[in-house]
Amino acid sequence: MTDESKTPGALDGLFVLDLSRILAGPTATQMLGDLGATVIKIENPKTGGDDTRGWGPNYARDTDGQPTDLSAYFMSANRNKQSVAVDLSTDNGQNTIRQLASRADVVIENYKPGGLVKYGLDHDTLLKAHPNLVYCSISGFGQTGPNRDQPGYDLMAQGYGGIMSLTGDPDGAPTKVGVGIADVMCGMYATIGILAALRHRDQTGEGQHIDLSLVDAQMAWLINEGCNYLVSGQVPERRGNAHPNIVPYDAFGTSDGHVLVAVGNDSQFVRFCDAIGAPALGRDPRYTTNLNRIENRVALTASLTPILAKMTKDELLAKMHAVKVPGGPIHDVAEALTSDQAQARGTVVEVARDDITDGHVRLLANPLKFSATPVTYRRPPPRFGQDTDAVLATLRDEKPQGNSE
Questions:
Q1: DSSP bridge pairs for 318
Q2: Residue 183 annotated in active site
Q3: Element (H or E) spanning 97, and its range?
Q4: Fewer CB atoms inside 10 Å of the end CB: C or N, the chain?
Q5: pLDDT digit string (tens) for 26-64?
């Protein structure tokens, strides 16, 4: 653990007022915080803060071994933030938010569309008061459309947006992705949108409203399968681990487990077949081009399966790597995070927190590697409301404290 508090970030001096909770909004604001922005996270004192503080079963424990309000889920998206307890339903709370918004570069919220109007904290009201503000609203279905008033969680977004229909065994039930990927990707789109709007603001002095929904974002990252449908009119189907546009590109069983085979072009396929001792397959006219392999994927898979099943995982991977054919293991989370590659790249980071057992929390690091403005881990995920007094005291100053953290 190192003290990086003095390292300048790419977003040093940016002030973000975070009215979001759960995952999509917090993912975006954590990213902005990692890049140097000051992020003030507003939490509801009536509910004990962000919903995910209670999403166990895994919690950081205090020095007496008791669970804290720092659930693993909460900590995954809330470092580099200050927690301020404010009740938006009160006049004092609304005035506090207005004061903070007057100093903010960015406001981000994920209330139901129109939910902040009654408090006078909606985008129309705040943008009229502060025309250079970037205001980002995240909701399940967006600010318009017939479903705008429906609540949205990641599971519903994955179902409505189509990705569940593509995920899972071909003969099994539609399956969600193992993590809240609709929320996470929505947060990434929000980050990009906020940075683009800030670029526009810096050039023109004009702020704007960003309207982003979980479902819109999820449909946008249907990527090739979405375009496959738009081009062909045919509804894509679940293929398990197989690829709709490349064959063989799948998980294959060996004598001691599964291995990923990712043959990306025709020359790789020939080398692959030679390496596994099946040169005739590489020269079979049914398989010489990727288009042919797609058309004959069932027969090809049936031929490859018994050949690969006789090898061990290490044997198959060694043969593939020797001829430069892409392939790899299927790690569990522990294997992934303790791998030599993860250790070399600093995938896990320890952030000091004196009131926690061992004096630190372990988090997943930001993957961005900057040569001039590195990501910093200045603040651990906050306890609920821990920064309320300090932040509200700054309202007496002429400007926010920025990054003097």
A1: none
A2: yes
A3: helix 91-103
A4: N
A5: 999 999 999 999 999 999 999 999 999 999 999 999 999
84 part of a folded domain: yes
Q: Which residues pair with 351 in a beta bridge?
A: 361
Which residue is catalytic, options 50, 122, 154, 183?
183
Same-domain pairing of 183 and 51 = yes
- Domain boundary at 273, 303, 325, which? 325
Q: Which two tokens stand for residue 271?
A: 């080398």
Is 215 exposed, middle or buried (CB count within 10 Å of its CB: 0-12, 13-18, 19+)?
buried
Distance (Å, whole) CA 194 – CA 18: 13
Please give the Cα distance from 39 to 30 (Å, whole number). 8
Residue type, 318: A
Name the residue among 342, 391, 375 with its Cα closest to residue 30: 375
- In terms of phi and psi (left: phi > 0; alpha: psi -120 to 50; beta: otherwise), the region of 40 is beta
Q: Kindly state whether residues 179 and 117 are assigned to the same domain.
A: yes
What is this structure's pTM?
0.93
Domain range for 108: 15-221+339-396
By three-state DSSP, how is residue 403 classified?
coil
